[in-house]
Amino acid sequence: MRSEIHALPAASAGTTRLLRSLHFGTGQSGRKAYIHAALHADEVPAMLVAQHLRQRLLALEAQGLITGEVVLLPLANPVGLSQDLQGAHFGRFDAATGLNFNRAYRHLTQALIPRLEPLLGQDGEINKQLVRREALALLADWQPQTETEALKQLLQRLAMDADVVLDLHCDHQAVMHLYAGTPLEAPARELGALLGAQALLLARASGDDPFDETISRIWWELAEHFAGRFPIPQACFAATVELRGETETDHGLAAGDALALLAFLQRQGLIEGPPLLPLPAERCEPTPLEGVEPLTAPHAGLLVFAKAPGDWVEAGDLVAELIDPLNDTVTPLRASVSGRLFARVSRRWAGRGMRVAKVAGAQAYRSGKLLSM
User: Domain Succinylglutamate desuccinylase/Aspartoacylase catalytic, which positions (predicted)?
Assistant: First the structure.
């Protein structure tokens, strides 16, 4: 294992924040995987899974079984990790700007097209290397204005030339679920089966440029733009893995999740040896991210759930009640679509307009920005 320390530019006098990237394997196969934990820094289960990954990767490396390169960041966001506000961890948004740490990465397709036009040829493998080279050059030209922009630049540069990118998160209270690009359905289904995912949410573009999407989306967009002229392979599988709920920091769960992630890397050609896991039956069918119904509180009140994460709900089913203690109004919150309730908030007081639960419906009906803030 090789360990590298990356310093972020100081946000204020006398401070420096560091990231550590761990590099495993021989790199002989030419394939690379990138995994980081807790980009939303208050999503702690991802960091525990990363610890189990580190231990297993060290053992696999000692046996000479990692023929590719696996890059692991056990802690992806020291900025958000430091934001403790009077006992409450505030790790989802940058306190200095209010921006989500998993939004506003550099979407490179339009800038890549004119750079690639005179370079591409008929060899898809050479074209793949050209795309990666030019994408990394564009990222190197980015001049970050804030510490958080520098963090985003660093993460994107570490991942841009990877064949597999896994962004480990969790939700408030949730079952295992995944987000991936629609063109990546086949490998996403494999990953979901290995992890036991109960929702697999697919979209070509979810809005606001989250991390995983900006790494993988360029490939299908460039392939479509240059179709009939230059072959562009789908050279990167990227996904956001939501590791259940925010309090589920359990060694048993984390060890199982780490093994499943490594089994996926093995199926992707980065690890040799006997199969780490058989491929289980899928626990869900993929559904469009446009089909997710976010249930929203129409007024403030006490939130009492009638359904739990993992429950199947039919259209019209009661999911929660909202009770206003000022006037004793009880408002039922009902699903308007049938599907799996895969996540809900952990707090039990809802403000007006707050999203309180998410149901994975099978039919697309939303458009625009599909992710929560």
Answer: 30-185
Which run of H or E residues covers position 282? none
340 lies in the same domain as 353 = yes
Give the per-residue pLDDT at 372: 85
Question: What are the residues facing 292 on neighbouring strands?
Answer: 360
pTM: 0.98
How would residue 179 be classed by pLDDT, with cut points 50, 70 and 90? Answer: very high
User: What does the chain come to in residues?
Assistant: 373
Among 55, 99, 102, CA closest to 76: 102
Question: What amino acid occupies position 86?
Answer: Q
Task: Indicate the residue type of 160.
Answer: M
Q: Which two tokens stand for residue 155?
A: 């993460």
**276: its two tokens:** 């780490």
Neighbouring CB atoms inside 10 A of 274's CB total 6
Range of the domain at 87: 2-284
Q: What angle do CA 217, 197, 250 make, to 5 degrees?
A: 115
Task: Show the DSSP H helices in 161-298 as ranges.
Answer: 185-195, 211-225, 251-267
Q: Which amino acid is at 98?
A: G
Strands 312-313 and 339-344: antiparallel
CB count in 10 Å sphere of residue 316: 10
